[in-house]
Specification:
three-stranded antiparallel beta sheet, TAT_signal, signal, ABC transporter substrate-binding protein, SsuA/THI5
């Protein structure tokens, strides 16, 4: 785990820099742990941290980094982390059914006109004829775990194409990348900051876009423990406000590109502190820019997409039929779109 504290980062900036904004809630240096992946899609949290938006809300934030969605959901439910940004998975739904977790908002979304998640083929599969999604029948498809968002996307694409896929769980994104490069699996879907880097380097081939099959797909959600959602409303609302400010900055700089070139450059440098940290800036920049997808304004949640995902998990027997969207989502926080 890598830990950063906003209070420490601002400690030398002078007392005035860390004063809460007028009208902020009565929280003061409330310790808060935010779960994240080192993906451009998690940038709103990084922006809120670096620009003091969490501090403005009285939250003293640490990040806890994960390599897959499922472990993050477990950490939130066990209260090892307070808030997370991740996809809807069978594990998250089951934790919600047990009264341990709640979705409180939406984050990353597929949107027409903005490059989104890519459908990829290994070079070996591509050379053998897998050049489009309608040729997926009989192929192996990489997922982190059964019941992951990768499983959902692959299954929905296969159903649309009348294809039968063999799903191969590989636990971590890094392991999937290795398996794609070596031809151990045939296909995969992934966010553009990773997908474009792989295709640009010739490691894999792009054969389609997820948005063509799942328009408006709510890729990631904001979630917390049921305990936080029910009993710590001030803290939960403070997190959502700060996150939303970070999302607004990110969208303006890299998605809508209305903030200007200097703001875009500053944003990429900020994100680079967390994403592709093992690469020099000039090598990381194209992948970060290419990975800029819409983060929902005001953490709004696409309920139609959530309902579709929940319906698929039920149809596959991955979660109980009795689970409803109310089981999963606390609608008192989530603005529906």
């Amino acid at each position: 785990m890598t830990t950063f504290t906003r209070r420490g980062a601002l400690g030398l900036a002078g007392g005035a820099a860390v004063l809460p904004l007028l009208g902020a809630p009565a929280l003061a240096n409330t310790k808060t742990t935010v779960g994240a992946l080192r993906f451009t899609s998690h940038a709103a949290s990084f922006v809120a941290f670096e620009r003091g938006y969490f501090t403005d809300e009285g939250l003293d934030v640490d990040f806890k980094f994960f390599e897959a969605a499922q472990p993050m959901a477990v950490a939130i439910a066990s209260r090892d982390a307070d808030f997370g940004v991740t996809s809807i998975t069978g594990g998250l739904i089951s934790l919600a059914e047990k009264g341990a977790a709640k979705v409180i908002g939406g984050a990353l979304s597929e949107e027409k006109g903005i490059d989104g998640q890519m459908i990829l083929a290994s070079n070996a599969a591509y050379e053998a004829g897998l050049t489009a999604p309608d040729q997926l029948d009989g192929k192996t498809f990489a997922v982190t775990q059964p019941g992951s968002s990768f499983h959902y996307m692959g299954a929905k694409i296969a159903a649309a194409e009348g294809a039968s896929l063999s799903f191969k769980p590989l636990q971590k994104v890094g392991a999937i990348i290795g398996a794609m490069k070596s031809g151990q699996v045939d296909a995969w879907t992934i966010v553009p900051h990773i997908g474009k880097a792989l295709t640009g380097g010739g490691a894999v081939q792009q054969i389609g876009m997820v948005a063509d099959y799942l328009p408006g797909y709510q890729v990631t959600t904001l979630f917390t423990s049921a305990q936080n959602a029910e009993n710590d409303r001030a803290k939960t609302e403070a997190f959502l406000r700060a996150f939303s400010r970070g999302a607004d900055d990110f969208n303006a700089a890299l998605v809508d590109k209305t903030a200007g070139d200097d703001a875009a450059e500053e944003m990429v440098k900020l994100v680079h502190k967390y994403v592709y940290t093992d690469r020099p800036y000039d090598k990381a920049k194209p992948s970060i820019v290419n990975g800029a997808m819409r983060i929902n304004k005001n953490a709004a949640l696409n309920m139609a997409s959530v309902e579709d995902q929940l319906g698929w998990f039920k149809s596959e027997g991955l979660v109980k039929d009795s689970i409803t969207t109310e089981t999963l989502v606390d609608s008192s926080y989530a603005e529906a779109i």
